[in-house]
Amino acid sequence: MTEETFGVTCQATVKASKRITADNADEVRELVLGVDEPAFRATPGQNIGVLIPGPHPFGNPYHHRYYSVVSAQPSGEGADIEILVRRCSYIDEVSGEEYPGIASNFLCNAAPGKQITLTGPYKAAFKVPADKTSNLLMIGTGTGIAPFRTLIKSVYAQHGGWQGKVRLFYGAKSGLDNLYMNDQNNDLANYYDEATFEAYQAINPDPYADVGETLGKSLSQNGAKTWVLMQMPNTYVYLAGLKKQVAVFDKVMAEQAGSAGNWQALKGRLQAEGRWAELTY
């Protein structure tokens, strides 16, 4: 596997790296990547890939990870691209040992001036439906809130007059984790006055609590009305963040559907009709 395997690549320079969560919360950093290549045009909501040179486990020369573009501002002949990165770790299922996440730690440790190889940009996983009466159901954990922030902005600030229901379920370990939900203008809060918008923040004060379980409780508490929304022919379902939340969501919806089979049938229909999208890691 060579760098060419990943298609179009370009070099970016870390222009800024700032921690935006408190010291007693999970580390989340806001990175600004300067791209001088005019042909590399990314827009908020799209994804870019980051190539981390190896060697890596199993002899892989590169490690590839996707991140959502939070903002992209013109700079010279290129652009400054902002992404959010949570420093992650994982537990080896065999040994039980904890290891640092390759991409997240590489980026969180990258000081200004560091050169990084990007791939893409890729099409946005989450698109605003053409029909303004469509319902949007968004479920996110961790930095998975980033693409939804962009999506909600587009729904209300750009399209206007949105009539469908917009529902956001967001799981966090503590209220401090929510600091990176909003930009300097507290943009998500701007939409709480919208008649069609509701957000449910699932927060557990226990720092060792499983964020997936916390999110699952919030979904269960609102399961009945969420199930009604799921069955409407104009509802779109978007999931972003930790991969484990897909299993949590499946479990909650199976309970509402009466069986796992009933839920999988509806989920299959959503996928077949292009009304289901995931961006999980």
Describe the structure.
- The protein has 281 residues and is an alpha/beta fold.
- It has 2 domains: 3-122, Elongation Factor Tu (Ef-tu), domain 3; 135-280, Rossmann fold (3-Layer(aba) Sandwich).
- The protein has helices at residues 102-108, 145-159, 211-221, 223-230, 244-257, 260-272, and strands spanning 9-19, 28-35, 47-53, 62-68, 71-75, 78-86, 89-91, 98-100, 115-122, 135-141, 166-172, 197-203, 235-241, 276-280.
- The chain has a 7-stranded antiparallel β-sheet. The protein has a 5-stranded parallel β-sheet with strand order 12-11-10-13-14, with helices on both faces.
- A hairpin with an 8-residue loop joins strand 1 and strand 2 (28-35).
- It is globular, with a radius of gyration of 19 Å.
- The chain starts with 8 loop residues before the first strand and ends with a strand.
- Its cofactor is FAD.
- InterPro entries: FAD-bd_FR_type, Flavoprot_Pyr_Nucl_cyt_Rdtase, FNR, FNR_nucleotide-bd, OxRdtase_FAD/NAD-bd, Riboflavin_synthase-like_b-brl.
- It comes from Thiothrix nivea (strain ATCC 35100 / DSM 5205 / JP2).
- Keywords: FAD, Flavoprotein, NADP, Oxidoreductase.
Short synopsis of the structure:
With 281 residues, this protein is α/β, with parallel strands linked by helices. The protein has helices at residues 102-108, 145-159, 211-221, 223-230, 244-257, 260-272; strands at 9-19, 28-35, 47-53, 62-68, 71-75, 78-86, 89-91, 98-100, 115-122, 135-141, 166-172, 197-203, 235-241, 276-280. It starts with 8 loop residues before the first strand and ends with a strand.
